């Protein structure tokens, strides 16, 4: 099953870090995933996110406001696809 991941953030350092770490997790864990970066504030707000960065897995916001560890990201993705 292909996973749809979206990194929500306007381009701050934490947003870029989340994008980098998420990309590494997908490669290291061999997830079949599409990763999109969403920088438009209107689109970000449509998800109900008030603090960036945020990660959306299959259209569900799994966290916002910080950069989680690789292990946390793996757990968020695995939980969403199980």
- What share of residues is helical? 40-55%
Number of DSSP-assigned strands: 4
**What would the CATH topology be?**
Glutaredoxin
Regions with little confidence, pLDDT below 50 for 5+ residues: none
Oligomeric state of the chains?
A: single chain
Based on secondary structure, the structural category is: alpha+beta
Your description of this structure?
β3 (54-57) and β4 (60-64) form a beta hairpin. The chain has a single domain, classed as Glutaredoxin, CATH 3.40.30.10. The protein is 43% helix and 26% strand. The protein contains 3 helices and 4 strands, in the order βαβαββα. It has a 4-stranded mixed beta sheet. The chain is globular, with a radius of gyration of 11 Å. The chain is α+β, with helices and mostly antiparallel strands. The mean pLDDT is 94. The protein starts with a strand and ends with a helix.
How would you summarize what this structure contains?
Helices cover 43% and strands 26% of the residues. With 82 residues, the chain is α+β, with helices and mostly antiparallel strands. The chain has a four-stranded mixed beta sheet.
């Amino acid at each position: 099953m292909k996973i749809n991941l979206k990194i929500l953030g306007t381009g701050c350092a934490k947003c870029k870090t989340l994008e980098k770490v998420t990309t590494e997790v997908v490669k290291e864990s061999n997830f079949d995933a599409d990763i999109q970066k969403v920088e438009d504030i209107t689109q970000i707000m449509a998800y109900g996110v008030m603090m960036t960065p945020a990660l959306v897995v299959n259209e569900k916001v799994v966290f916002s406001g910080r950069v989680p560890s690789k292990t946390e990201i793996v757990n968020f993705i695995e939980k969403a696809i199980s």
